[in-house]
């Protein structure tokens, strides 16, 4: 009888141990890396990047995973056309030379199957530096109502000094070099059925 009672427990443990990591594609229509930056202490500039792609691998049972995100820097959007045009010039982000920002990291600090941070590196303006993201909210659903497969979403936060990445415009005028990142991200499991909608 004892053996019969323990059998389901062992089966569940074996299933958790052998659960395969799930591969996700970043969903570009609901992913927005947004930011805040100082303007001489007079105001805060806020904007976002409109084009992001990448991959996430998540193993909730093992408490592990990876993130790789690619951001089209020229898609910067302040809601102000003139400012958008200025930011891609060599004086600022120089997107002709550095068209892409890349973030790579490992999901960490798991609690109840959900990561609480990402330990990674940001490559921006040709420079790579460590950057940890704090995950303030994380949730997965088994079946996205449109894509018909598993999906996960998160809200992440970080700060960094832009002059450490060579983006120094305004420093001589007293601009605070601190940039605050607030990242809304959704990702959908890779297709397993050709009939499932693509991203």
Automatic annotation (TrEMBL):
Q: Which Pfam families match?
A: YceI (PF04264)
Instruction: Could you list this entry's UniProt keywords, alphabetically sorted.
Output: Signal
Source domain of life = Bacteria
Q: Which residues form the signal peptide?
A: 1-19
Q: Where is the Lipid/polyisoprenoid-binding YceI-like domain?
A: 23-188
InterPro entries named in the record: Lipid/polyisoprenoid-bd_YceI, TTHA0802/YceI-like_sf
Q: Which PANTHER family match?
A: PERIPLASMIC PROTEIN (PTHR34406:SF2), PROTEIN YCEI (PTHR34406)
User: What's the protein name?
Assistant: YceI family protein
Native species: Tahibacter soli
